[in-house]
Amino acid sequence: MKLLFIQGGSRWKFDDKGNAYTDANFNENIWNRYRAYCDELTVILKKEETIYKEEVARCRYNRFDTKKSKLIALPDIYRPVYQFLNIKYRRIINENIEKAVKEADAIIIRSIGTYYTNTALKYVRQYKKPYLVEETGFSFEALWYHSLPGKFAAIPNEITTKALMKDVPWAIYVTNEALQKRYPCKGNSLGCSDVEIIIDEYALEKRLKKDSNERIILGTAAFLDVGWKGQIYVIRALAKLKKKGLSNFEYQLIGAGTGKMLQAEAQKLGIADQVRIIGALPHEKVFDWLDNIDVYVQTSFMEGLCRSIIEAMSRGCPVLCTDVGGNYELVEKKCLMDKGNVMSIAQKIEMMIDEEFRREQSKRNFEASKQYEMSYLNDKRNSFYKEFLSTVNAEEK
Description:
Elements: E1 2-15, E2 20-22, H1 28-35, E3 40-52, H2 54-60, E4 62-64, E5 70-74, H3 87-103, E6 106-110, H4 115-126, E7 131-135, H5 139-144, H6 148-166, E8 170-173, H7 178-182, E9 188-191, H8 201-209, E10 216-221, H9 231-243, E11 249-254, H10 260-268, E12 275-279, H11 283-291, E13 295-298, H12 307-314, E14 319-322, E15 336-337, H13 342-351, H14 355-369, H15 374-396
């Protein structure tokens, strides 16, 4: 069986040897999950124009095995923004997606609401192909907090996404309830996070045995040059705490991008010595980094169900996060912050000075993360996908 996967957010990245990579949203474990459902997997993403040196790409991104699966790299009509009106690019995108849909036996569309995924949905319905939608985020917030042009598109796109989701026959939501409430569908649905964690029973024990450091290390894993990820508000909160005489914090940031604006803000506020931009890390190195921080902080203005939070919880990290998307499903209410509110963020960070409170949250989060353990989620997800794919096989017969 030929399975087509399409997503409109992530970009293919290529090195100078022609190898393909993806950002932290995907890795070989995730691709192997889809490969197990089919004989041939084809993945469609848009293409980043930058060509990386092989050693740089290997360190920053996740390699895609082109011997196991096919890839289709489409022009990026979102970057720069004026390319959205490029008729030539639209034609190339439409022709490639239509051809791929016609050749596939089944299609997985990840997140309705982009030009790429909406185009795929159009052709899927036109050719009456079996399809499943994975809904991972909130359409309005994704655009509203993205850019000025995004604010004009946010409301129409939200209305369109709700309308398109209504008639979806098979849907997987990454939340237990948050996305389901916003974008209900009439068909079969499942709430199941797409996080990939294996519970290490010694992770909590090692964390609780760690010697107390003079500095409390805060950490965020997110794109560094994307404003709605909100790291700048942590930096401003640390500056506010420093004025109160509380400067025993170090803030580490990992993720793709340069982080130049964040570093400049830290310099301007006089806390450059408290902010460390690490940059992108391959997925397998993220867990080592999590083991060496004291508190995980996620200050996004929008999320579906944040995988980084669950990964941090699985390593026994205390977590502070903004009350957006499905984050409230993950942490205690007392650890939720108001988005973009420096005072709220500063108060919650100050709360983490209490070592006993951090230990309490470590234990609580580690136990809560067990419901997202890979084998448990895979069983749920596989059962649902097999049910979906059985309808494909039935139609072929």
